[in-house]
Specification:
The chain is an alpha/beta fold. It has two domains: about 160 residues, 3-Layer(aba) Sandwich (Leucine Aminopeptidase, subunit E, domain 1), CATH 3.40.220; about 325 residues, Aminopeptidase (3-Layer(aba) Sandwich), CATH 3.40.630.10. It is built from 14 helices and 18 strands. The protein is elongated and about 80 Å long. The structure holds ligand BES, manganese (II) ion and zinc ion. The site of ligand BES has 15 residues, from loops.
Amino acid sequence: MITVSNKKIGDFAGDILTIMVSPQADGTLSIPDPAVQACLAKAQDAGDFTGKADETLVVYPEKGLACKRLVFVGLGDKEKGREEIRKAGGIIGKKSMELKATSLAVTWYDVDLAMKEIGECLTEGILLGQYSFTKYKTSQDDDRAVFLKKIALFPQVSSAECRKGVVLAEVAAQAGKTARDMANEPGNKWTADDFAVFGRGLSRKFPIKCTVLSQRELSRLKMGGLLAVNQGSENGPKMVVLEYCCARKGADTLLLVGKGLTFDSGGISLKPGAGMEDMKYDMCGGAAVMAAMAAVGEEKPAGINVVAIVPATDNMPGSAAVKPGDIITSYSGKTIEVINTDAEGRLILMDALAYGVKEFKPTAIVDLATLTGAVLVGLGHHYTGLLSNDDALTGKIVAAGERSGEPVWRLPLGAEYTKQLKSEVADLKNIGGKTAGTITAAAFLQEFVGDTPWVHLDIAGTAWGFTEKSYIPKGPSGIGARTLIDLIRNWS
Ligand code: BES
Ligand code: MN
Ligand code: ZN
């Protein structure tokens, strides 16, 4: 429960009152509230708190304040943008967990950012910082996370604007956490079926239609890619299709596609054992897309239709598995020579993309996939790789990523790269050789989107182990969900 309050901070009687502090030009810290200033002055004299970014100080107030603890959080003396406020929020969220607090109030002075954005980014940071995944821990001595039940922001002015930002942030942060939760589920607990169950759940709660294509329909539709990748598995494949149609006639339709590979062993082209457990995260694209649809259901945007498709399966080396050298036929009719069964993401995505283009004639497509190890070589854990056939759509997503604290970096496409995918015996082969692995993977996908403006986001480097930040936990980051939500909110 998050409220925006006009009351006096001195009367707040909860677990933690947080004051976000920016040092003045001369390095001094000044807070208008005398009781708070008194608590700060001693710490400052002792040199224990200077207000620089990331710094925190816990004080137990003696008089004039009703709260149990005062926590000062430094904002630094540089200009504050959305990300700085979000990070401060993350520190507050984490500190609250450390102190097992259930009630929190936050106030700040002289932050030169629109009040709506302060409310939004602060709330996002706090909520995203308050995350842990303890579902499978049964031991009582495990340090169980205690989460905040009540959060109050004290903006002192423009509380209506602040409130607007809070509302946006609650939806976006929840989506980020939902995506993390799905990703944290291991391969034996989150299968293609679970994507279907989640999708059907959205259709019960929101004006969203859910269609689940199972083995039989996929065979009838000749989805040769998804079926081939699934061949070695005991769990059936699913293609989950979600449709949100706003009331407005003639509105744009945005198609989202997410790789829902619930465990990637590599198949017959088996991966090495070390680190293979991380391949449970190979469904993070699907998770981001599903979580974003939950937000769409909550917000019901008036000016845009959103369709989401998640092709879901695991990639296993069973005796019936697809083999190197096999030739398969995609939904589009194009034939593919499978050189490496570990390049499976593009095989399930090609069917989802071609199906989405044919069925929904979207205005634009965004796909998210943990597609290549090569993107980690190029960009590390700090940028999502972006590849696109459209500059305008690229611009929108670069801006959405920037606003969301999820930066993207564009890589080129072109005929030279597409040529690397030529096969002697089929229309395409599924790998493009040793060089430019991220680009040739995207070039492969490009073959299935036609002329539709399309952006591919390779999140293999950012879906887990993303840049260390206060509001990003170790493990899965939930990347993509908030960027998509921002994109949809700012579409027109
Ligand atoms: N899911 C992986 C990509 C991946 C690798 C994600 C490492 C995160 C970390 C994908 O299915 C894959 O195996 N790609 C291969 C492609 C290669 C066989 C052309 C890769 O990147 O090694
Ligand atoms: Mn693979
Ligand atoms: Zn994969």
